Amino acid sequence: MEWKTRVTELLGIRYPIIQGALMGFGTADLAVPISEAGALGMITARTLRTPEKLREEIKRAKSMTDKPFAVNFSPAADPIFHPMLEVVLEEKAPIIETGGTRGSELGLRAKEAGLIWMHKVTTVRHALAAERDGADAVCIMGLEGVGLKNPAMLTTIVSIPLAVRKVKIPVIAAGGIGDARTFLAALALGAEAVLLGTVFCAVKECPISDRFKQALINADPYDPGWRDPILVAPKAEDMEALKEAKDSKEIMQAVVKAEKLPATTDMTRSIGTGTASLAVGFIDKVVTVKELIDSIIGGAEEILTSGGLGGWVLAPKSSA
Fold it and tell me: What sections of the chain are H helices per DSSP?
């Protein structure tokens, strides 16, 4: 079946699936296979650290695929992103994603140059602000997700339909999504695509060690060691510290505190201590990117046509 939404048309992708930023290992090694499989891969600017390295990575990605991919800038307030955005414009990467803080300065500059701008938020209020700022699409992360959060955020199953009632631009769902059923559920809630992070950590192409991938397979989302860092939103004062940070070092320190991460520059070492969403419960083996995406899409199509949706089967309407 054809998975056509405003997001697939906007981004030029086959399936309404987008890779999360995955700070620390969001490189072409993972982004390109995801794009090649029909979804949208994403390179994380902060992972590359400098404009020069980001330029090299974008060139490398473009040499590996002719499919669209995005570049993430989060938290958007970091001043290092201004010269990095200029690199994106010069290298003609087609899509950017901002998040963590208001992204209009970067987003509008990108749109002026003809790029597509997505912005990730945690509440309906911020989704409406992104729409007013001119974002082409907005991603809303529920409490089940991982990353920069907000003390006022709600769960994915509540946030998405509330947003769809008010936001006119396409809405993308994130947080706790990791298999065919959660993918379909997000679309049923009104989202026009999903953003997956945690389940892409356990694919063969993800550049983290087999030890960390095995930890994800063994993870129990009911285990407080996994559950609590995800479901406990940051304190208001931690978010204020992020807003007041003046340079990259202060911003990163604030991010580490707000996300309850280990204070390390090697973000891959934080797997299992706060950088996996509740979707970790859907990981039971290491597969390729294509196998993962095919299982989600194939599983969703099977559910829709075989009575797996609460016993209901989609069938053509009778002409009688």
Answer: 6-11, 28-36, 45-48, 51-64, 81-91, 104-112, 124-133, 156-166, 180-188, 198-201, 210-218, 224-231, 236-244, 248-258, 289-306
Query: Which amino acid is it at 220?
Result: D
Torsion angle defined by CA atoms of residues 197, 37, 99 and 232, in that order, rounded to the nearest 10 degrees: -10
Mean pLDDT in order along the chain per 10 residues (320 residues): 96 98 91 98 94 98 98 90 97 96 95 97 96 98 85 92 98 97 97 97 93 93 87 63 57 54 39 68 97 98 84 61
Tokens representing 127 are 């989704």
Collapse the DSSP code of 309 into the 3-class scheme (helix H, G, I; strand E, B; otherwise coil) and give the result.
Answer: strand
For the entire predicted model, the pTM comes to 0.88
DSSP bridge partners of 193: 172
- Pairing outcome for strands 137-141 and 41-44: unpaired
Domains along the sequence of the chain with CATH: 6-301 (3.20.20.70)
**Cβ proximity of 190 and 151 under 8 Å:** no
Whole-number Å distance between alpha carbons of 142 and 156: 4
Tell me if 261 sits within 8 A of 267, measured CB to CB: yes
Is residue 61 a contact partner of residue 28, using CB atoms and an 8 Å limit? Answer: yes
Concatenating the DSSP letter of every residue in 76-115 gives TT-TTHHHHHHHHHHHT--EEEEESS--HHHHHHHHHTT-
